[in-house]
Amino acid sequence: MIVSVRQRIKEQLNEIKKEKSKIFYCIELTFDAIKFNEHFNDYRNFWHLLTQNFFGPKEFKKSNNDWYDELEPEGFYFFTESYNLVQFRIYLETNKKIKYEELIKRVNDIVPIIEVELYHNDEYRFNKMFANDIFKIQKSEIQYIGKVHVPEVEDNELPF
């Protein structure tokens, strides 16, 4: 059975949203492409440093690894790159509140950031960031976070 990308995302998000006690976040990180590529030859290296690095900003007592592990996040992210911008769009669901200033500092310690958008429990922003941009999502690799189930899917057709 072939499942479209849109349907796969919709099913997984509905599964994630079932637990009402969790907070869901829509995060968009935007970088200058030249500066980002000076630091990384693969976008996964950035994500690894943000989530698995045993160092972190000096003003916070926790390493990036400890901070991320405490969030116990579930969700997904995808990466897009244009001529002059690099963007990460992240959907996270967690029981803990993410502090905006701390997130910015942790990201800026890795690579200079142009813009951060962080919204929690905002269905409109979710639709704006993810559902309305299905072509960008389909062209990028979706990376799953936490215990989100990744089904075996064949994508030989456009979902619309």
Features of the shown structure:
7 helices, globular, alpha+beta, 5 strands, 5-stranded antiparallel sheet, 160 residues
Describe this structure in words.
The structure is a single chain. With 160 residues, the protein is an alpha+beta fold. The protein contains seven helices and five strands. It has a five-stranded antiparallel sheet with strand order 4-1-3-2-5. β2 and β3 form a beta hairpin. It is globular, with a radius of gyration of 16 Å. It starts with a helix and ends in a 15-residue tail after the last strand.
Task: Offer a concise description of the structure.
This protein has 160 residues and is α+β, with helices and mostly antiparallel strands. The protein has helices spanning 5-17, 33-39, 43-52, 64-71, 100-110, 123-129, 134-139, and strands at residues 23-32, 74-81, 85-94, 115-120, 143-145.
Helix and strand topology:
Blueprint: H1 5-17, E1 23-32, H2 33-39, H3 43-52, H4 64-71, E2 74-81, E3 85-94, H5 100-110, E4 115-120, H6 123-129, H7 134-139, E5 143-145
Antiparallel strand pairs: 1-3, 1-4, 2-3, 2-5
Helix pairs in contact: 3-4
Spans where pLDDT lies below 50 across 5 or more residues: none
State the share of residues found in helices, binned by percent: 25-40%
End-to-end distance: 17 Å
* Helix-strand topology string: HEHHHEEHEHHE
Could you report the average pLDDT, rounded to the nearest whole number?
Answer: 81
Characterize the biggest β-sheet.
5 strands, antiparallel
